[in-house]
Amino acid sequence: MIPSAMMTGPQKITTPHDMDEAAVVEHMRHLKAEFGKKLVILGHHYQRREIVELADFRGDSLELCRAAANQDDAEIIIFCGVRFMVESARILARPRQRVYHPNARAGCPMADMANAPLVEKAWRDLEQRGLHGSTIPVTYMNSDADLKAFTGRNGGIVCTSSNATKVFEWAFARGERIIFYPDEHLGRNVANSMGIESLIYDPREPLGGLTEDEFRNAKVLLWKGFCHVHTHFTTAHIDEAREKWPDVYVMSHPECTQEVIGASDFAGSTSQMCRKVAEAPAGATFAIGTEINMIHRLAFEHADKNVHTLSRSLCPNMYRVNLYNLYDTVRDLENAPQVILPDDVMRDGKLALDRMLAINL
Ligand code: 13P
Ligand code: SF4
Q1: Nearest C-alpha to atom 3 of ligand 1 is from which residue?
Q2: Ligand 2 atom closest to Cα of 82?
Q3: Which ligand gives the minimal distance to the CA of 60?
Q4: Which site in 7, 60, 216, 246 is 20 to 30 Å from 330, CA atoms measured?
Q5: How far is the CA of 137 from the centre of ligand 2 (A)?
Q6: 3-state secondary structure (DSSP) of residue 6
Q7: What domain count does the chain have?
Q8: For the whole prediction, is pTM greater than 0.70?
Q9: Arithmetic mean of pLDDT over the chain
C-alpha cells in the first residue's frame, strides 16, 4: 500500500549495521546532549529496549499522542513506532516542528485493513438508508491519517486501547449507533464490556455481509480487521500458564479475541499493563499476551518479579525501527525524510484526534 504520509529528502548514506551497538548508543547520547530540548524522541512500549532507553518519553499510543501535542520547546520530534503513530504526532505537533520516522516502512497491517475509499463505501450504505445522521464513526488510533480525516469530517472521533470505553460513551451520547474500524476485536471487547451487541461488517461483502434488518438495527458495526500479533494468543496458552504458575496474574491487550480477554485477569493498554507490573510486590508472577519486546523489557526491568509471555509474538513492523536507522536520522536531519501530510488530512484528522484528547480519562 502507498503510505499516506509523503516523505521528502534525498537518499542518505547509512550506518553499517556491524558498527558496535555500544558506540552507536554513545554517539546518540552525545547528539542528544547537543540538541538539548530542541530534540524529542518518543518511543512506544513495543520498541526494542535500546530504543526505549534512548527515548525522552515512552508510552502507549494515547500517552505518546499527548506528548507529541505538548512539546513547546522542541523543534524536532522523532517518533519510534509505526506509521499511524507518527502520522498522528505530525497532525498534533506544532506546524513549525519537524517530525521524523526512522523507518518509513514500519506500517501496521491491521491499519491497512481499512482505508478511506472502503469506509466511504460503508458510509454510503448508511446514507442510502438515512442512517448516517445518527451514526458516529469511531476509528482506532491504528488507522491511516486519511481515515482519521474522514472520521473527523463526519463528526467522528479517534480512540485508543486505553480510552475506548470512554470514547464509545461519548459516541452514544451523540448518536444511536457506531461504526468502528479497523479492529473487530477491540470493538467487540469494548461493546461486550458495555453490554452492547455488535455485528461484523465485512467490507468485501454487499452490505457488509449483513441482512437489511441486521444492518439497520446494529448498535455497533465492527469492521472485519485484526492484529495478527494479538490474535496469535489462545485460551490454551492461558490454561498452560495457569497450570505452570498457579499464582499467575494473566494480562492481555484488548486486540486479543473475546475468549482470551474473558480468560484473562486484566485487559488494558500497553501502559496500563506496564503499570500493573511496576506496582506489584516482589515475587509476583505475570503471564502477558502482547508483543514480545515489551514483555522482555518488563522482565529485565523488574527482575524481582516473574514476568512471562503467554506465547512469543513479535510485531515485525515495530521491529523495523532500530538503533541504526534512529542514529542515521538524528545525525543527518537535513537529509532525513520528514513526515508531511496533505493540508486537508491535517485539518480534518486533527478534528477527530482533538475530540479524543478533550475526553478526560
Ligand atoms: P497501545 O495503545 O495499548 O500502546 O497499543 C498500540 C498497539 O499498536 C497495540 O498493538
Ligand atoms: Fe499493528 Fe498489531 Fe503491530 Fe500494533 S502490534 S502495530 S496493531 S501489527
Answers
A1: 269
A2: 6
A3: 1
A4: 60
A5: 21
A6: strand
A7: 3
A8: yes
A9: 95
